[in-house]
Write a structure and sequence with these properties.
The chain is of the alpha+beta class. Among the domains are: about 10-210, Histidine kinase-like ATPase, C-terminal domain (Heat Shock Protein 90); about 220-330, Ribosomal Protein S5, domain 2. It is about 35% helix and about 20% strand. It has an 8-stranded mixed beta sheet with strand order 5-4-3-6-2-1-7-8, covered by helices on one side. A hairpin with a 2-residue loop joins strand 12 and strand 13 (about 255-260). The longest helix is centred in the N-terminal third of the chain and has 18 residues, at about 165-180. The radius of gyration is 31 Å and the shape is elongated. The protein binds adenosine-5'-diphosphate and magnesium ion.
Length: about 650
């Protein structure tokens, strides 16, 4: 008996739906694309319960002819593509003819539609892929699709849906992507009865970005526009001082279609290279226009990825336009004056609160970096003949110095960095010391009982970025921002649960995108831990009563929006999340490269950094201190051989 059967269309639809409809956000995306393709000028989206129980999209586009309404729900039924030859030049957002069929197979759909040729419209109801109602109805010009009970018949799928707030967030960002890529259409998004955003439809991308929650951002974005051959690039990018911890705020639109693209992200980031820190990402909204045949949009079931026929040209077009805009804006180094980098921000300190001090509270059991360095050196020195005093000029025994472990070894994962172990991997020399050394000389004993941290003298600062200091044996180079960031990170972390925050003199309202705001509120406990006291303040706004110590008040909106983005993109363990949030705070609070810092402050800063064993890598893992010994210098200049 035959064992292979062709699937029923219903079963085939259900399976295909798995690729197209993953969550309410994907339904929003497909329905909005249909509205745009239908030439709508006004589109409203309404969600209830994250769009799971109820999701409605109303447009004033062309509508669907009564004779086409049933067909529209068949799989592979489309008005946008007729011939094979057209597949190589698709100018509409839709073309696969799958969305309505897929959505209707996994939910209860009501569609109301009317074209200008008719006075009456048509309504059709389809539940789990089966038609359960059809008839004439009075309705305005255009189309309304109501989707209820998503995945009611696919429990396996329903199980994977997240909390309402999270699903709503996905749906909102899907809607925002389309709204920003089609600023000529006015989009309105309502969630559980509240308006989340409403774009004006004035044709300006900046207005749409502003409306979709980028209120604080929109004003600072730099406009870009350029072209290379047939490729035109326009849109907005962030100035170099606005960066994010993730790529969540990088959006690319190809001929009006939102896509994800590593190639385009790489091109943008290449243009920012050397202008922003590694591990940070620029914000961008880029609209690329190119000939329809130069891009294959048929490579992804949800049409989220595309293939370019001339990748190199696209890359250069984007790279050059972005770099040109940054150059024109003089985006080389941030040359901003910033007050004392050692003191906590005092502008919002309340009277009774204790200021944190940067002086190192030295824990008895933990050797400082300087101590471990000294003892490592002493250990090696002991093995040298007494006639060659270790620290005499030009007499530094090469063999001894060569055996010293590198002074600064990048600890790749700074968060697993164990402060109890000296960071200069002195374990081996220490062991040698106890095992092999003859009875200790008085100096040795002195160094064992607590040598002083190196007496450093700051010589100056290179590129307003690297502090240069000398001790009697060599030169220290300290990356000002990275070291300060690490210091703050450690301090805030040590002061979690209580001491990390300062009451603001007057509470501050912060406008975020709805998605970021929801994420912050959902994790209010975690935010409290790192020092933010926040409350819901209505439409897109949070009220901040407390903020982390050290953070400038003006940086609060930025940090909260970044925290929102991190919360949304976070996948790993909760303690990683906490560290991520701390990184956002300490990075923003730290003095920036390029800022002026006065000499006395640099001196204190260098002393504090070098005395603190735990400040050797920034929280992102980059080294922040390096050392060039006098011996190395002397070798370099061939004073010794
Ligand atoms: P596709 O968009 O790939 O063609 P869909 O399943 O999304 O496939 O839609 C099928 C067809 O239904 C479309 O080609 C279009 O003709 C019609 N349609 C869907 N939504 C709308 C709408 N909002 N307004 C007008 N026509 C629509
Ligand atoms: Mg479609």
């Amino acid at each position: 008996m035959a064992q292979i059967y062709q699937m029923s269309p219903q079963l085939a639809n259900l399976i295909a739906a798995g690729e197209v409809v993953e969550r309410p956000g994907s339904v929003v995306k497909e329905l909005l694309e249909n509205a745009v393709d239908a030439g709508a000028k006004h589109v409203t989206v309404e969600l209830r319960h994250g769009g799971i129980s109820y999701l409605r999209v109303t447009d004033d586009g062309s509508g669907i002819l009564p004779e086409d309404v049933r067909t529209a729900f068949l799989r592979h039924a489309t008005s946008k593509l007729r011939r094979e030859s057209e597949l190589s030049a698709i100018g509409t957002l839709g073309f696969r003819g799958e969305a309505l069929a897929a959505i209707a197979s996994v939910s209860r759909v009501d569609l109301f539609t009317r074209t200008k040729h008719y006075d009456e419209g048509v309504q059709i109801t389809i539940e789990g892929g089966k038609e359960t109602g059809y008839g004439e109805t009075g309705c305005p010009l255009g189309t309304t699709v109501v989707v209820r009970d998503l995945f009611f018949n696919v429990p396996a799928r329903a199980k994977f849906l997240k909390k309402d707030a999270t699903e709503a967030a996905y749906a909102e960002s899907a809607a925002a992507q389309i709204a920003i890529s089609h600023p000529e259409v006015a989009f309105r998004l309502i969630r559980d009865g509240r308006e989340i955003f409403s774009t004006p439809g004035d044709g300006k991308m900046r207005s749409a970005i502003y409306a979709c929650g980028g209120r604080d951002l929109a004003g600072s974005l730099l406009a870009i526009s350029g072209s290379l051959g047939e490729i035109a690039v326009s849109g907005y990018i962030s100035p170099t001082e606005i960066t994010r911890a993730t790529r969540a705020q990088q959006a690319f639109y190809i001929n009006g279609r939102y896509v994800r693209s590593r190639l385009l992200s790489a091109a943008v980031e290449e243009a920012y290279k050397g202008r922003i820190m590694t591990g940070r990402y620029p914000v961008c909204y880029l609209d690329l226009r190119l000939s329809l045949s130069a891009v294959d949009v048929n490579v992804h079931p949800a049409k989220l990825e595309v293939k370019f026929s001339r990748e190199k040209e696209i890359f250069s077009a984007v790279y050059q336009s972005v770099a040109a805009a940054l150059d024109a804006n003089g985006e080389l180094q941030e040359l901003r004056q910033k007050p004392n980098l050692l003191a906590p921000r005092e502008d919002h300190l309340t009277g009774g609160q204790q200021k944190m001090r940067l002086e190192v509270e030295r824990r008895e059991s933990v050797p400082t970096f300087a101590e471990s360095y000294q003892s490592a050196r002493a250990a090696v020195a002991q093995k040298q003949p007494a006639s060659m005093p270790y620290q005499t000029k030009s007499n530094v025994p090469p063999a001894a110095e060569d055996k010293l472990p590198p002074l600064v070894e990048p600890v790749l994962d700074p968060l697993t960095f164990d402060p109890v172990k000296p960071s200069v991997s002195t374990a081996a020399p220490e062991e040698q010391k106890t095992e092999q050394t003859p009875p200790a000389s008085p100096e040795d004993r002195a160094s064992e009982t607590g040598p002083e941290p190196p007496q450093v003298r700051v010589l100056g600062e290179a590129f307003r970025t690297y502090v240069i200091a000398e001790d009697k044996d060599g030169l220290w180079l300290i990356d000002k921002h990275a070291a300060h960031e690490r210091m703050l990170f450690n301090r805030i972390k040590a002061g979690l649960d209580g001491q990390a925050s300062q009451l603001l003199l007057s509470p501050k309202t912060v406008t975020l995108s709805q998605v970021e705001k929801d994420a912050c509120l959902e994790h209010a406990d975690l935010l409290r831990k790192v020092g933010f006291g926040i409350e819901d303040f209505g439409r897109g706004a949070l009220l901040v009563r407390e903020a982390p110590m050290y953070l400038d008040e003006q940086d609060i909106p930025f940090v909260l929006s970044e925290i929102g983005a991190r919360l949304l993109s976070h996948r790993g363990a909760d303690n990683e999340l906490l560290d991520d949030l701390l990184k956002s705070i300490s990075c923003k609070a730290a003095v920036k490269a390029g800022m002026d810092t006065d000499a006395q402050e640099l001196q204190q800063f260098a002393e504090a950094v070098l005395a603190d064993n735990e400040v050797r890598n920034c929280p992102h893992g980059r080294p922040c201190v390096t050392y060039l010994s006098r011996y190395q210098l002397e070798k370099l200049f061939k004073r010794i051989v």
